[in-house]
């Protein structure tokens, strides 16, 4: 199957497919059109520029300290080259923007954003970024060279469920790491999942191509990807992506559902003659359960994929880790996939068009969902129904929307009762609490105590609530390069502000928060107040200035080396990366290019924050540059 990526500007009257995020009134006005690709009015899958094996114009040329050996492949955005360091036998992959795209600043920015996303997501299942630069006006980045094959080449038909779950699990780990840093990949597909050899002859997944990744909170100076523009590969796009809506981590989980369906059945859930047909299917059609496509497959695995493929993001798994666990559970058959423990109750629905009200046995499904058992035809999908719930703790009236039908046949396969799923609608936080408590059998619902009247107390509580949401430096309210005396003084001051609150008649929730905040302050001081412990924490934060403070406070080289060994045990994938940057820094130093050398030392320290030599040189160079600047300003 030809699976290609597309960007469609949805806000143009006749959507066109091209590789840039700009809507074009006329197709041929787009500077990014790849020659030879059709430009009709119909949305159709875009084919990539042909790969010309080994004939890249870049062969033999230098990208920083790397010399190009051959071309590895081409994508919509750029050419990927195999290159080797000129001084040391280290091979890397260089991705350089296609020259004809360099005229469009948004596309150059997208390549940089891809590199930034890769560097933020440091994980063993994500290709590592080494460097980022521009050459003759063309932005490029240097990344880990992956020897292996893409999942598209590896899995040309259905693969064994155990292997599929192992690979999907690693994909979930990579996505989980990206999501933890606020990055949504948005283009998960077999071509972007690379397999290299891992320990004990197993496959190790390396997720590639964060080319259209989206930072949920764009950073200063970063161009956010435009909303209202559809980007992705049609077969793998979640409904909200197809309609140009908001995307979040659950958008990637849908793509894992598609990938899982493909690996287990050899087919994507939705295909069609045109991109538009595929998008409409994602929005409107129910996927066929995988075990119906490939008989013999465990229905429990199908059920997990169907949940990942739910049309509404809130019906999917809430995290990549949850999806991974559900896949593993379904494979081992140890328990039903991620269903809430069944507390049953009676629910009735009285529809205005019917004179009688109908009673159902209900059970909870997800935090705000119900499953109502029924062998009768259910109310139509997406219809609103008035509900009266007789919960263990009392009666509750509310409205729900019918979001799923489970037919008798599906119920048999999935080992559950037939019926329909209802999502409780338009509910406030206090309703949700009431529902949860009544479900658990708590009959009397008392509202939460009001916050204290005293504005001084409110101020301290809200300040510490913010502080506790940050790292240990934030908890103590000190900068990351604070010295030991400042840290101790701030910890003392924090205690002096919190402790008196305990003498006041605080509501229980606030009292326990103050106690927790005090315990946290003590814990933070225990780490930041001792250079041996602080240095380990600074290494995790890649806080080089903090590490320098620890050395200034008397941390010995032996203690630093011991911390460094532990750091590599925790992050085995980063060991050795600093060698490249150090070598580049030396090369820049000998050429007298001090700012570039400093950048390379900083890159070395990001990979290996406790590298003594790099720390020394970085420090010396910074002091020298500061000295030069001061001298220049006094002249
Ligand atoms: N780090 C790498 N190591 C080895 N080969 C790579 C690496 N990155 C990419 N490739 C190869 O280069 C090819 C082109 O990759 P690239 O990410 O530019 O494009 P794509 O994902 O195929 O297309 P698009 O960017 O349009 O989605 C890939 O198909 C892969 O074979």
From TrEMBL:
Stretches assigned to the Protein kinase domain: 66-331
Transmembrane parts of this sequence: none
CDD domains: STKc_PknB_like
Major enzyme class: transferase
Secreted in keyword set: no
Gene3D superfamilies, per database record: Phosphorylase Kinase, domain 1, predicted glycosyltransferase like domains, Transferase(Phosphotransferase) domain 1
Protein name: non-specific serine/threonine protein kinase
Source species of the chain: Melittangium boletus DSM 14713
Higher taxonomy: Bacteria, Pseudomonadati, Myxococcota, Myxococcia, Myxococcales
């Amino acid at each position: 199957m030809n699976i290609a990526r597309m960007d469609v500007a949805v806000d143009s009257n006749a959507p066109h497919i091209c590789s840039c995020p700009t809507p074009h009134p006329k197709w041929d006005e787009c500077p990014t059109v790849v020659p030879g690709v059709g430009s009709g009015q119909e949305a159709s899958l875009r084919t990539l520029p042909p790969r010309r094996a080994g004939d890249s114009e870049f062969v033999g040329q230098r990208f920083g300290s790397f010399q190009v050996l051959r071309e590895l492949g081409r994508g919509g955005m750029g050419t990927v080259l195999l290159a080797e360091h000129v001084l040391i036998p280290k091979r890397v992959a260089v991705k350089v923007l296609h020259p004809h795209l360099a005229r469009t600043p948004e596309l150059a920015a997208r390549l940089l954003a891809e590199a930034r996303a890769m560097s933020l997501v440091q994980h063993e299942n994500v290709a590592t970024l080494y460097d980022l630069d521009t050459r003759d006006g063309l932005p490029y980045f240097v990344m880990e060279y992956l020897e292996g094959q893409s999942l598209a080449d590896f899995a040309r038909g259905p693969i064994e469920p155990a292997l599929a779950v192992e690979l999907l699990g690693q994909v979930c780990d990579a996505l989980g790491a990206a999501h933890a840093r606020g990055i949504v990949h948005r283009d998960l597909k077999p071509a972007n999942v690379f397999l290299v050899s891992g320990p004990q002859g197993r496959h190790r997944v390396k997720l590639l191509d964060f080319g259209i990744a989206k930072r949920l909170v764009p950073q200063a100076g970063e161009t956010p990807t435009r909303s209202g523009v559809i980007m992705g590969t049609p077969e793998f796009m979640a409904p909200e992506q197809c309609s140009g809506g908001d995307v979040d981590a659950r958008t990637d989980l849908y793509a894992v559902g598609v990938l899982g369906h493909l690996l287990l059945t050899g087919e994507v859930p939705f295909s069609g003659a045109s991109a538009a047909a595929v998008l409409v299917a994602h929005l409107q059609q129910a996927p066929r359960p995988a075990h119906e496509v490939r008989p013999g497959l465990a229905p429990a695995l199908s059920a997990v994929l169907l949940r990942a493929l739910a049309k509404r993001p809130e019906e999917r798994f809430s995290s990549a880790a949850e999806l991974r666990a559900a896949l593993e559970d379904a494979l081992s058959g140890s328990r039903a996939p991620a269903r809430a423990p069944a507390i049953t109750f009676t629910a009735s629905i009285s529809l205005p068009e019917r004179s009688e009200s109908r009673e159902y046995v209900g059970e909870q499904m997800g935090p705000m969902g119900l499953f109502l058992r029924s062998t009768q035809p259910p109310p139509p999908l997406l219809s609103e129904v008035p509900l009266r719930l007789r919960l263990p703790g009392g009666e509750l009236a509310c409205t729900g929307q019918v979001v799923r039908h489970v037919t008798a046949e599906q119920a048999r396969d999935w080992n559950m009762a037939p019926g329909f799923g209802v999502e409780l609608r338009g509910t406030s936080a206090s309703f949700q609490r009431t529902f949860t408590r009544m479900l658990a059998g708590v009959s009397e619902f008392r509202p939460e105590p009001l916050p204290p009247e005293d504005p001084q107390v409110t101020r301290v509580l809200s300040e510490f609530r913010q502080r506790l949401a940050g790292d240990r430096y934030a908890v103590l309210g000190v900068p990351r390069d604070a010295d030991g005396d400042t840290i101790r003084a701030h910890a003392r001051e924090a205690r002096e502000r919190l402790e008196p609150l305990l003498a006041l008649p605080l509501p229980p929730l606030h009292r326990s928060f103050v106690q927790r905040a005090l315990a946290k302050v003590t814990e933070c001081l225990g780490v930041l107040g001792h250079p041996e412990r602080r240095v380990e924490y600074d290494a995790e934060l890649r806080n080089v200035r903090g590490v320098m403070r620890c050395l200034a406070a008397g941390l010995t080289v032996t203690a630093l080396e011991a911390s460094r060994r532990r750091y590599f045990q925790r992050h085995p994938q980063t060991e050795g990366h600093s060698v490249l940057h150090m070598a580049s820094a030396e090369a820049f130093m000998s050429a007298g290019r001090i700012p570039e050398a400093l950048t390379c030392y900083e890159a070395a320290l990001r990979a290996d924050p406790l590298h003594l030599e790099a720390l020394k040189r970085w420090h010396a160079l910074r002091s020298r540059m500061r000295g030069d600047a001061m001298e220049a300003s006094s002249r």
